[in-house]
């Protein structure tokens, strides 16, 4: 064990990259003390999850050293359950958390399921049979069953309903050991954070701040504004010196030497300019075009399947969606929202029909509609509708998907980049029916207001599932279907 306040984790001059085209860390150094609850910040794709993998030794640094003190135990709750583990039963899933056979795995499993608020779950049930929110709780349980000294959480609120997030907040506030959390939920982070590790995507360094989340975010914003103002002053000085240097150079004689020295000073000033931090860029405002020539009823919902007490029952409803009508589908984790959206998108939902030939744009929370073996570029070209190469790349750039990212296989992208790619696909697809399952999961909080504005202005029929109240409030909702009240 360790004493609270002792340094239990240290990165000393750590460099790491996924090949020459994707550097993550460059001689990064920081430390974490026992008992601290730390937020890890940075843009989508900056490498936050890679830092957690370096801590768990699943990745090794190219240079420098990652030191975990003494006999400290480390456990991680990843963002998503790997696809090759979805066929495991709950018992097998928890058994895989340990290197050696655990003979009392059943009572341990049942106890930890209570901790994450999953009740009356059969240990024989397969992981793939759980909803996204329930899988998020299983990921947390997987880490907690190991009783770690250092708990690593990668986007733990994704897919969780309000009750689940409140339950997790209370758990972390009461948690006595050390915790490092990646999340884009500002209120959640502020409820327990002691400090922030800030991964700068430009310098590849990790900056360390002490204080609650909102204080640190404000401090970072002020520093960025100071850097911007410094650039403005330097740019003005550089322009004035360039004009003077050109004037002296034209005069000839000894004034040419003066001009030469002035140009050397200009070069020095150029080097002093601070690059605008890429991690503080947000996606461009965008518009999802609606399929043309839509008329009449687009979706008709006469009944839906609802899961309560582990039983599925059909409930009668009467909902009709036409062009420019938005439906919010709500209800707690496990009630069947994702299953319902999937069946609507596939056209297999009983009691639900939509206009023949209508183009369906489907944003699925686990990105299983994407082919992880193809490049991001190929994924965009597969849905494009009468789009030039120039327009395709412009749309991609608006979602921070540069030429290098477009060449990357989707399976190698961060979860946040997969989300931005999915949004870019919708823009190019021009759907008449838009189905969105938790579109803010994994997304940088700076992008969320931009996404909300685009959905608010969407002119086709839309069905939305989201547990993020602030996000939903920014979107025009014409009708709400709460499965819990059926």
TrEMBL record:
Keyword Protein transport: no
Coiled-coil annotated residue ranges, if any: 217-279
Gene3D superfamilies in alphabetical order: P-loop containing nucleotide triphosphate hydrolases (3.40.50.300)
PROSITE patterns cross-referenced by the UniProt entry: ABC_TRANSPORTER_2 (PS50893)
Matching InterPro entries: AAA+_ATPase (IPR003593), ABC_transporter-like_ATP-bd (IPR003439), ABCF (IPR050611), P-loop_NTPase (IPR027417)
GO molecular function, one term: ATP hydrolysis activity
SMART domains: AAA (SM00382)
One Pfam family of this chain: ABC_tran
SUPFAM superfamilies found in the cross-reference section: P-loop containing nucleoside triphosphate hydrolases
Domain ABC transporter stretches: 9-226
Protein name per Swiss-Prot or TrEMBL: ABC transporter domain-containing protein
Organism: Candidatus Jorgensenbacteria bacterium RIFCSPLOWO2_01_FULL_45_25b
């Amino acid at each position: 064990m360790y004493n609270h306040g002792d340094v239990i984790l240290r990165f000393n001059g750590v460099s790491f990259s996924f090949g020459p085209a994707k550097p993550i860390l460059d001689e990064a150094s920081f430390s974490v003390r026992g008992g601290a609850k730390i937020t890890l910040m940075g843009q989508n794709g900056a490498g936050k999850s890679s830092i957690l993998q370096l801590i768990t030794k699943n990745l090794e640094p190219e240079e420098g050293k990652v030191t975990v003190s003494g006999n400290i135990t480390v456990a991680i709750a990843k963002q998503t359950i790997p696809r090759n583990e979805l066929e495991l039963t709950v018992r097998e899933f928890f058994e895989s958390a340990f290197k050696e056979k655990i003979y009392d795995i059943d009572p341990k499993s049942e106890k930890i399921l209570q901790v994450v608020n999953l009740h009356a779950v059969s240990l024989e049930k397969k992981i793939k049979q759980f909803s996204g929110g329930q899988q998020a709780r299983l990921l947390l349980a997987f880490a907690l069953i190991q009783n770690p000294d250092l708990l690593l959480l990668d986007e733990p609120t994704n897919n969780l309903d309000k009750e689940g997030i409140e339950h997790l907040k209370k758990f972390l506030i009461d948690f006595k050991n050390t915790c490092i959390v990646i999340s884009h939920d500002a209120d959640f982070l502020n409820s327990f954070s002691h400090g922030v590790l800030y991964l700068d995507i430009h310098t590849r360094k990790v900056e360390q701040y002490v204080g609650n989340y909102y204080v640190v975010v404000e401090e970072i914003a002020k520093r960025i504004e100071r850097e911007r103002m410094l650039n403005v002053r330097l740019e003005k000085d550089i322009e004035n010196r360039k004009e003077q240097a050109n004037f002296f150079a034209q005069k000839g004689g000894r004034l040419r030497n003066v001009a030469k020295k002035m140009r050397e000073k200009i070069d020095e000033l150029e080097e002093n300019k601070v690059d605008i931090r890429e991690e503080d860029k947000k996606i461009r405002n965008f518009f999802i075009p609606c399929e043309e020539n839509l008329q009449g009823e687009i979706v008709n919902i006469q009944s839906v399947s609802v899961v309560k007490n582990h039983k599925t029952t059909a409930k009668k409803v009467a909902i009709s969606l036409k062009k420019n009508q938005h439906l919010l589908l709500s209800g707690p984790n496990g009630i069947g929202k994702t299953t319902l959206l999937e069946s609507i998108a596939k056209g297999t939902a009983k009691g639900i029909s939509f206009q023949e030939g209508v183009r369906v744009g489907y944003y699925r929370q686990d990105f299983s509609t994407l082919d992880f073996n193809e490049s991001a570029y190929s994924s965009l070209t597969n849905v494009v509708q009468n789009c030039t190469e120039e327009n395709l790349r412009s749309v991609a750039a608006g979602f921070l998907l540069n030429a290098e990212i477009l060449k990357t296989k989707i399976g190698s992208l961060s979860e946040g980049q997969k989300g931005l790619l999915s949004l870019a696909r919708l823009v190019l697809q021009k759907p008449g029916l838009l189905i969105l399952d938790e579109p803010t999961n994994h997304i940088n909080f700076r992008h969320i207001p931009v996404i909300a504005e685009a959905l608010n202005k969407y002119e086709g029929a839309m069905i939305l599932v989201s547990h993020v109240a602030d996000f939903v409030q920014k979107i025009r909702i014409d009708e709400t279907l709460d499965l819990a009240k059926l």
